[in-house]
Amino acid sequence: MDLEPGFHHNHLKKQSWTTVLTLAYQSLGVVYGDLSTSPLYVFKSTFAEDIQHSETNEEIFGALSFIFWTLTLVPLLKYVFIVLKADDNGEGGTFALYSLLCRHARVGSLPSCQLADEELSSYKHETTNLALTSFGSRLKSMLEKYRVLQRFLLVLALVGACMVIGDGVLTPALSVFSAVSGVELAMAKEHHKCKIPSSEAMFADLGHFSQLSIQIAFTSFVYPSLILAYMGQAAYLSQHHAIKNDYQIGFYISVPKTLRVPVLLIAILAAVVGSQAIITGTFSIIKQCSSLGCFPRVKIVHTNSKFHGQIYIPEINWILMTLCLAVTIGFRDTKRMGNASGLAVITVMLVTTCLMSLIIVLCWHQSVFLAIGFVVFFGMIEALYFSASLIKFLEGAWVPIALSLIFMLVMYVWHYGTLKKYEFDVQNKVSVDWLLGLGPTLGIVRVRGIGLVHTELVSGIPAIFSHFVTNLPAFHQVLIFLCVKSVPVPHVRHEERFLVGRIGTREYRVYRCIVRYGYRDVHKDDVEFEKDLVCSIAEFIKKQKDGCIPDGNGKMGNDEEVMRVVGTHEEIRTNYEDGPEADEIKPVKKRVRFVVPESPEMDGDSRAELRDLMEAREAGVAYILGHSYVKAKQGSSYEFLRRNSRPSTDTLTVPHASTLEFLYEERMTLLYYI
């Protein structure tokens, strides 16, 4: 299951034990599907190469000791008791750690960040009351000052994200290949080696469950079960030395023959569930990267209307399918697939260890020695597995590296191009003074209706608007500059989503509305979005006094605009035109009639302004979209990605009948070929 929007870790603490235990039970298949199947091959792969099973059983007990301490130190100690506490308002994964660092050190990758974003309740989520240490202060200053360190931090997060995507290609291929190969292949020598599966999954899937439920599931069921399974295998092998083939040293040889087929089917089912989980996780990673400006825009389909995290991305699904088929056909054995998957998993673990060291200093405000101890202790353990995986570079481990380089190139090129385009838009924006100089009529005829001008700028007037004024003989009586942007938090509470301001005086009827979404939030449909947008502006008008916003309630923009956070929980009264019920919000799409409330505290100017807004809403809403085409250098990778990605306005599910589109060419030269 998934959580409703805005339902993060702080709320999970208030859940009943029944809900927590239910989540713990559900996490067994999603989080631990791959880890639970590890006893099938670990002992067998350990003795598949050079290690021999002697009569003294030293090798058996040595392997058991190695397995025990690995499970105890990495999944149990590192992830369950340490890493899970570094959640981003209930969300986990590599980008959740990166998001935390961006907010605490102000090194965000989003160019449209504002000071007002730091006032979000989820943005200010603190995990400690300790003051930042002197080294932490110097480290924070260095990260904020030097762009090269910011880029290194971004690249580190991208490496982890790309390796997760690579695992999303390899794990399904490995599971499907094992499923169709039968019992004989499941016990063959060519099985995968040296993998630590799914320890990272318990952190990456944190947003789907809760910290407490995952801790309960692992400590009370998964960890004891795995230890008992390995101990049982070791006990059996220590008493049975007369094994014909060394590849039979594994799980199935210790299972009675009558139960081997049912156990195999259960194992295949667990592997398939684990594969589905990693595919879903890949979709989530892509969505997070796209929201933070690090991946080309793709179509995101929400498969469940109640739970926000259940998404499907058709383009990525086709790419994963193609790559999975290519890996399966190219390798044709699970040994090389396992080598590749093992390198992907252990690389993500190393990235998590590095980012966690920064979290300890910058977010938890702990001593630098504690961070160094964390890196040295867990980094040395994971470095052993990493070096063992690199030895198998020519035997399949090159695949995740190649896939990661391709995805990293795509991500970095798109991020670089997006930043340059935004910088160009900022440099060429029109001053607010120019707009105000046109007068309240903007120099053209104002007709009934609301005109929504979509822009990526959070201040100033987009250059394309001057083309609107020049080429259109008339414009709407209410003009709204709409900016829909992402902020580096997983969720934005509904009452904090809209940041509303006025451009000019009341007579202009020109507003700016910035709609903020977290990287895990769902964008509403056009009917609900229009209703919330109009209600937020109406609340902004109602709460003003003498045309001004009281000090302390707003944030000043670059063009001397005062922006105010307006919640729509105090909505003005609404009536449905084709329904007998009044003041009731139904889950069906119906046109809404807004009624101006009678309030003795509202002055005449505010009442007139509110009435104009309601009349304009009744007349209809027109979406004015300006498509800007960036002329990059010939042969540029960004140009190719831009042409094959969705436009920035694709997140707005606007009706085509209410859309007015302009084409606008921007001549921008990128600094170098990318």
Automatic annotation (TrEMBL):
One of its GO terms (molecular function) is potassium ion transmembrane transporter activity. Residues 23-191, 198-435 form the K+ potassium transporter integral membrane domain. The keyword Transport applies. Residues 449-664 form the K+ potassium transporter C-terminal domain. Pfam families: K_trans (PF02705), K_trans_C (PF22776). It is a multi-pass membrane protein. One of its GO terms (cellular component) is plasma membrane. It is found in: Cell membrane. Keywords: Ion transport, Membrane, Potassium, Potassium transport, Transmembrane, Transmembrane helix, Transport. The chain crosses the membrane at residues 60-81, 148-166, 212-231, 263-286, 311-331, 343-362, 368-386, 398-417. InterPro entries: K+_transporter, K_trans_C, K_trans_N. Belongs to the HAK/KUP transporter (TC 2.A.72.3) family. PANTHER family: OSMOTIC STRESS POTASSIUM TRANSPORTER, POTASSIUM TRANSPORTER 6. This is Potassium transporter. It comes from Ambrosia artemisiifolia (Common ragweed).
